[in-house]
Amino acid sequence: MTVMRTFQTHLFDLPPVKALPASGELLVSSPFLEEAYFNHAVIMMVNTPEDNEDGTYMGLVTNLSTNLTLDGIIDLPESVAEQSIPVYCGGPLSMDHLYFIHNLGPDILGKTTSLNNGLYIGADYDTLLTYLESGYPVEGHLRFFLGYTGWGASQLPHELAQGTWALSSAPSDCSELLTLSGMKAWQAAIHRLPVKYRAFKLVPANLSSN
């Protein structure tokens, strides 16, 4: 344990993140964060103090896959249920709530909330259902989540200062966030960060086994 602490503290000693995220930006977890929901996580911020009055932060873990499919959570027409649309875990809070992000925009899904990066969150359910029933593609365009991740007004700034998260803008091609999952998504996010973060890829994926 002492060796690992030294390994973390000195070899990967990075300055704390002082900037605060806005909606549409990404939090990329440190490889030393072993909590199940956040291990090698890429989190899309969907609500920040710029968007609310209570100073809190809300995000969705974009790359944590589950064994769930959309038809196992909500009633769907047979033609949609047969698509076995995957559902991801957005975080440990409100896991009885379904969320989705997409790159289809208001022209296709009607009223929706922009995340300022080419992605949107939410839309009218009936319009969404019409899109799915029509057989239009889901992969690369829509991603569904159960639950979300949240922080109090001072909690996230503290974690950023501790180096728990790196802060990143979204990729220029946001379909990446609706296509990649697991370690591939995390590694792609690390690659977009400043070079000083690249050494994170050297850390074993499962620290507890080393």
Descriptive notes:
Strand 7 and strand 8 form a beta hairpin. This protein is α+β, with helices and mostly antiparallel strands and 210 residues long. The chain is globular and about 50 Å long. It is 22% helix and 25% strand. Strands 1, 2, 3, 4, 5, 6, 7, 8, 9 and 10 form a ten-stranded mixed sheet that branches. The N terminus is likely disordered. It has one domain: VC0467-like (3-Layer(aba) Sandwich).
Short note summarizing the structure:
The protein has helices spanning 2-11, 78-81, 105-109, 125-133, 155-162, 182-192, and strands at 26-29, 42-47, 57-61, 65-69, 86-89, 93-102, 113-114, 120-121, 142-151, 165-168. Strand 7 (113-114) and strand 8 (120-121) form a beta hairpin. The protein is built from 6 helices and 10 strands; from the N terminus they run H-E-E-E-E-H-E-E-H-E-E-H-E-H-E-H.
List the helices and strands and how they pair.
Blueprint: H1 2-11, E1 26-29, E2 42-47, E3 57-61, E4 65-69, H2 78-81, E5 86-89, E6 93-102, H3 105-109, E7 113-114, E8 120-121, H4 125-133, E9 142-151, H5 155-162, E10 165-168, H6 182-192
Parallel strand pairs: 5-9
Antiparallel strand pairs: 1-2, 1-10, 2-3, 3-9, 4-5, 6-8, 6-9, 7-8
